[in-house]
């Protein structure tokens, strides 16, 4: 018979101590382990470190498992006591690991938030305020003048057909005036429009004249195979104008454009009409404005003529009316086309058309407060 003595063992209560001291030895081993691992857990700095401790202590090859395996050497009475004790230590370590894990996770989160945090006292990065492009400003100003006279604004197509760009403007294939408006072709019949005049034909054929006459302007981008220089661009902007009604005369054309030009360039300006040629108007004119730099005396701006050419105009050609099913015996009209760049250059003393397109803020900012 092996001598047995009851000894106190932590929370477990009392255990047998018998010869050979197996239980005492296991107890010591477990208590030491708990202390050691508990300290390691407390000192763990990262989740990885903590997980390594968990695997080393509680994993298959860990000491707790080893103790539990050693229980086979105990008697049936002693086994539950040692088992309960080992389980208690294991549960305590698991709880401690869980708490530490939560603590480390919160710490990691706080660290991340601290790094992401915004210093609201830092002055913000200034967003540079843009300015309306001078061409847009010019266009809007001219639109406003025409809107005040009851004109409507119509948008056309930049990609146009040969039919509307040329044929309907009385420029049949082979017409010599086509040479002055060579363009970029998408196919033999489809091209980038060379002027805003094709909008005339599109609007004329859609307008319901039983409801009254037609007054419209159409601003937009046009394209020509012109070599870029200080006064020419392969892509520029025009504003087309068209009025069709019963009894429209050259007097209406002159009065209207004089009013508009004075609004743009000032009341003291004079205009003059010079005979010209466009296949889609008859008669055709170029309209000049008296030079605002030299007051008509002659200077470098007006090339010493006292006058500056600003737009082409004329009475709508009867053929153009007929092609849009409008009877020239009943209706008449005038049309005009102006270059927006030309107007802006003259008004603001811009001496190179390329300034409009180079996206240089120093150029645009000059017109910020106009
Ligand atoms: C025309 O384009 C006619 N469609 C205008 C018209 C409409 C006349 C209705 C009669 C009735 P023109 O080719 O002259 O006309 O061009 C009109 C304006 O566009 C010119 O006065 C000029 O200011 C501008 N322009 C012409 N070519 C260029 C270019 N390459 N670069 C910049 N502006 C240009």
Give an overview of the whole structure:
The chain has about 375 residues and is of the alpha+beta class. The protein has eleven helices and eleven strands. It has helices at about 20-45, 45-60, 65-70, 80-115, 135-150, 160-165, 200-205, 250-265, 320-325, 340-350, 360-365; strands at about 5-10, 15-20, 150-155, 160, 190, 215-225, 235-245, 270-280, 280-290, 305-315, 330-340. Strands 3-6-7-11-10-9-8 form a seven-stranded mixed beta sheet, with helices on both faces. It has a two-stranded antiparallel ribbon with strand order 1-2. A hairpin with a 2-residue loop joins strand 8 and strand 9. The protein is rod-shaped. The N and C termini lie far apart (about 115 Å). Adenosine-5'-[phenylalaninyl-phosphate] binds next to strand 7, strand 10, strand 11 and helix 10.
How do the helices and strands line up, and which of them pair or pack?
Elements: E1 4-9, E2 13-18, H1 22-43, H2 47-58, H3 63-70, H4 78-116, H5 134-148, E3 152-153, E4 159-161, H6 162-165, E5 190-192, H7 198-206, E6 214-223, E7 235-245, H8 250-265, E8 271-278, E9 281-290, E10 307-316, H9 318-323, E11 332-339, H10 340-348, H11 361-365
This protein binds adenosine-5'-[phenylalaninyl-phosphate] (FA5).
Adenosine-5'-[phenylalaninyl-phosphate] is lined by residues 195, 197, 224, 226, 232-233, 236, 238, 240, 278, 281, 311-314, 335-337, 339, 341-342, 353.
């Amino acid at each position: 018979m092996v001598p047995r003595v009851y000894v106190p063992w932590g929370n477990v209560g009392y255990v047998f101590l018998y010869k050979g001291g197996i239980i005492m030895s296991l107890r010591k081993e477990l208590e030491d382990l708990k202390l050691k691992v508990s300290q390691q857990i407390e000192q763990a700095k990262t989740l990885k470190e903590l997980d390594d401790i968990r695997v080393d202590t509680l994993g298959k090859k860990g000491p707790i498992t080893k103790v539990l395996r050693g229980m086979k050497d105990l008697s049936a009475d002693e086994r539950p006591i040692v088992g309960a004790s080992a389980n208690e230590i294991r549960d305590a370590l698991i709880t401690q690991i869980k708490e530490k894990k939560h603590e480390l996770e919160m710490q990691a989160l706080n660290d991340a938030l601290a790094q992401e945090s915004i210093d609201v006292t830092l002055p913000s990065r200034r967003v540079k305020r843009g300015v309306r492009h001078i061409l847009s400003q010019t266009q809007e100003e001219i639109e406003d003048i025409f809107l005040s006279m009851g004109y409507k604004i119509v948008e056309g197509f930049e990609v146009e057909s040969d039919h509307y760009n040329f044929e309907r403007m009385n420029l049949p294939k082979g017409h010599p005036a086509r040479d002055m408006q060579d363009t970029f072709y998408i196919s033999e019949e489809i091209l980038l429009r060379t002027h805003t005049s094709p909008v005339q034909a599109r609007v004329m054929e859609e307008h319901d004249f039983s409801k009254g006459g037609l007054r419209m302007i159409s601003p937009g981008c046009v394209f020509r195979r012109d070599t870029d220089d200080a006064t020419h661009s392969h892509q520029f902007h025009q504003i087309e104008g068209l009025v069709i009604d019963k009894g429209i005369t050259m007097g209406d054309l002159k009065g209207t454009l004089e009013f508009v030009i004075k609004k743009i360039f000032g009341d003291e300006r004079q205009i003059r009409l010079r005979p010209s040629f466009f296949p889609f108007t008859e008669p055709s004119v170029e309209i000049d404005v008296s030079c605002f730099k030299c007051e008509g005396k002659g200077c470098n701006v007006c090339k010493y003529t006292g006058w500056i050419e600003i737009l082409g105009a004329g009475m709508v050609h009867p053929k153009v009316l007929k092609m849009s099913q409008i009877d020239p015996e009943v209706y008449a009209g005038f049309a005009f086309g102006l270059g927006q760049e030309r107007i802006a250059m003259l008004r603001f003393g811009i001496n190179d058309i390329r300034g409009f397109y180079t996206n240089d803020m120093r150029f645009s900012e000059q017109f910020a407060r106009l």
